[in-house]
Design brief:
With 276 residues, the chain is α+β, with helices and mostly antiparallel strands. The chain has 2 domains: 2-83 and 252-274, Sandwich (Immunoglobulin-like); 97-250, C8orf32 fold, CATH 3.10.620.30. Helices cover 17% and strands 41% of the residues. It has helices at 123-133, 139-153, 167-173, 178-191; strands at 2-24, 34-44, 50-53, 59-65, 69-82, 155-156, 175-176, 196-204, 209-219, 223-227, 239-245, 254-259, 264-274. Strands 1, 2, 3, 4, 5, 12 and 13 form a 7-stranded antiparallel β-sheet that branches. Strands 10-9-8-11 form a 4-stranded antiparallel β-sheet, with helices on one face. The protein is globular. The chain starts with a strand and ends with a strand.
Length: 276
């Protein structure tokens, strides 16, 4: 599937601000199941934009606006080709949980079995994970069980949380948005020593196009596999992957600081259309 993605973020300030330093993590990745054909970031007020790869291999574009301004706009345009990843059968049992000892201290997995800013692996989380997996002994089967459990446990409710809501709060109120579903699944997985990472991206559906968050779990002998607890499924070609991290804090679409008024308004608009 070929997608054209347009993502606009605009800030309006109540008064002039200055010394604005900004990072943008919105460039989709290229991997065996996704190919980025083009990407463009436009900034207003016009600024020089540079980029680098962060610790987890995500593209980060950054720019500064030193002069006073009351409006800041960032718009990205990308063309991406996605391919359906070969699904892992839901009855597959590729690796027993005992195999997780072999990957716990590897460079690719170590960070993703630790607690992080928005997730935890407390005894209460471990107890919930044990109950969710119902004595499963296979990594993939345990991961599927956690995904289904989170999908049943949480109710999707727009604006019920914010991007800085920790998983314990989402669990307490039993509702949230896609970031919360992902954080809860990640915490439960890590409590059982299943490496799990947060995925930032887009989801194109018939009813809406929007930023989205899901998870990837590491299955020994298979590798990283995507699971979306919000929709209780394995991601398909309607998912566009931007980046990965320990949780939302590692891959926010936009992050920045500035000097000036705290009174501001943020408007975000995402449009995803088929490009061919």
């Amino acid at each position: 599937m070929k997608w054209a993605v347009r993502h606009r973020t605009a800030f309006s300030y109540a008064g002039p601000v200055q010394d604005s330093f900004n990072e943008v993590r919105l460039q989709p990745v290229t991997n065996p199941h996704q190919q980025l054909e083009s990407f463009k970031l436009t900034v207003n007020p016009a600024s020089s934009v540079d980029h680098f790869l962060d610790f987890y291999g995500n593209w980060v574009h950054h720019f500064d606006v030193f002069e006073p301004h009351t409006f800041l706009e960032m718009q990205t345009e990308a063309v991406v080709i996605t391919r359906l990843p070969p699904p892992l059968a839901e009855d597959a049992q590729p690796a027993p949980l005992s195999r997780l000892r072999d990957v716990a201290n590897t460079e690719s997995c170590f960070d993703f079995i630790q607690a992080s800013r928005f997730t935890d692996t407390s005894p209460a989380t471990w107890r919930l994970a044990v109950d969710a997996t119902a004595k499963q002994t296979d990594v993939w089967q345990a991961s599927l069980a956690i995904m289904r459990f989170v999908n049943r446990l949480l109710e999707y409710e727009t604006s019920s949380t914010h991007v800085h809501t920790p998983m314990r709060e989402a669990l307490a109120q039993r509702r949230g948005v896609c970031q919360d579903f992902a954080h809860v699944m990640i915490g439960l997985s890590r409590a059982l020593h299943i490496p799990a990472r947060y995925v930032s991206g887009y989801l194109a559906t018939q009813s809406a196009s929007a930023t989205h968050a899901w998870t990837e779990v590491y299955v020994p002998s298979v590798g990283w596999r995507g699971l979306d607890p919000t929709h209780n499924c394995q991601p398909d070609e309607s998912y566009v992957k931007i980046g990965v991290g320990r949780d939302y804090n590692d891959v926010p679409p936009v992050r920045g600081t500035y000097r000036g008024t705290l009174s501001r308004r943020m408007d975000v608009d995402v449009q995803i259309t088929k490009a061919g």
